[in-house]
Amino acid sequence: MRNISTILSIVALALTGVLFYLHFSKKEAPKNVSVAADKNGQQGFKIAYFHIDSLQANYTYYKDALEEMKGKESSANAELQNIKARFQQRIQQLQEKAPGMSQAEGEAAQREMAKMEQEYRKNEARLQDNLQSQQMDMTNLLRKQIEEYLTTYNKDKGYAYIFSYEPGFIFYKDSIYDITMDVVSGLNEKYKSTKKSK
To answer: How many CA atoms lie within 13 A of 12 on its CB side?
Structure first.
């Protein structure tokens, strides 16, 4: 699940770069961007942020999805263990018969073991691909939910940018612009109403 933090942090870092470019390029601000004058008469962007770790810890959908992913991962691991157990049992049977086997039987046993090994690797790759795909779907859905909520939330707030904050990417922040609680409570309300309607 660390991937979600990493993806959102990379997006935040990219947006920070865009912000610095726009701020220092001395170009006229686009007409559709909310611009406010500071006490020195300089124009600047109105920016807010939310803590991604707090969102992950308190957003009910994220916690539910995480539990679901853990269940799927456990199920995939159990399936692999069953395949491996059958594989090992068959190897043991072949090893017990090995002293009395002819050369042709020995070669057939080797081929069978190689095929079983190949099947195990194929199943392992399939299960890992499925898990990664489901994790990516969950990440994309989470991102979409956040973006949709922030679009609605920002209609009357006038922020030019809303960043997800993670230590190491932004070195200073003023807590007056922290909208984490608004984002978490808004997303939870929306998720709760979605669950009720199902």
So the answer is: 23
- Tell if the pTM clears 0.70, that is, is over it: no
How far apart, in whole angstroms, are the C-alpha atoms of residue 37 and residue 46?
Answer: 10
**pLDDT score recorded for residue 167:** 76
Identify whether the C-beta of residue 36 lies closer than 8 Å to the C-beta of residue 159.
no
Is 56 within 8 Å of 4 (Cβ atoms)? yes
Beta-strand ranges (E) seen in 157-198 are 161-165
- Strands 47-51 and 161-165 come out as parallel
In angstroms and rounded to an integer, the radius of gyration of the C-alpha atoms of the chain is 27
Which pLDDT tens digit goes with each residue over 123-160? 999 999 999 999 999 999 999 999 999 999 999 888 99
H or E element in which residue 74 lies: helix 60-97
The backbone torsions φ and ψ at residue 164, rounded to the nearest 5 degrees and listed phi first, read -95, 125
Residues 6+ apart with CB under 8 A from 5: 52, 53, 56, 166
pLDDT tens string 84-120 = 898 889 888 888 888 888 889 888 988 988 998 899 8
DSSP symbol at 81:
H
